[in-house]
């Protein structure tokens, strides 16, 4: 897609996403700043698939906006495998200005972690970036009210990563695609959990899973 077509697509999708999500002028300004920074850095390092750049708003940002609407209560988040900041930086943009709000972004790739730090600094976001493996972030996970992860791992693998560290009452929010039923069945063989399945308008058949009270089954 040429430059003019890319700009037109971005403008069209920005208007569509903002029409579906009622956010403040300050939030819109930060979202625009985030998109501008991501495109600037994308020219140097591969933050997202180049083919998805014209669809940044619907393919990437909107997941975070939807998650923020579903989970309005938590102020302290940990986002695992943050990559280019989806959904963690978007959540931080939504939380900017809330007293006590903080988002910990865990991203082991040093170049992506550098981008996350630059974006958090430029946009004045309540963010800490941890360029570490998730397995080494147990203390951080233990401080979270809510944990998010997007396109990181299967549900059983996510449970294995977070379960040893979750604080009582912490909630996991995992966007999942059309194959989520199989992942839920696999996880149910080894884990006990309470789940609310929220239909997602990002893609037909996709969901956001709200997970509470996660415990391993005996002998699993």
Automatic annotation (TrEMBL):
Descriptive protein name: Ribosomal RNA small subunit methyltransferase G
EC class: transferase
Q: Which family does it belong to?
A: Belongs to the methyltransferase superfamily. RNA methyltransferase RsmG family.
Its recorded reaction(s) are: guanosine(527) in 16S rRNA + S-adenosyl-L-methionine = N(7)-methylguanosine(527) in 16S rRNA + S-adenosyl-L-homocysteine
**CC annotations in GO:** cytosol
- Which SUPFAM superfamilies does the record associate with it? S-adenosyl-L-methionine-dependent methyltransferases (SSF53335)
A Pfam family it matches: GidB
Function of the molecule: Specifically methylates the N7 position of guanine in position 527 of 16S rRNA.
Question: What is the organism of origin for this protein?
Answer: Aureimonas pseudogalii
Write down the superkingdom of origin: Bacteria
- HAMAP family on file: 16SrRNA_methyltr_G
Compartments where found: Cytoplasm
Its chief place of residence is cytoplasm
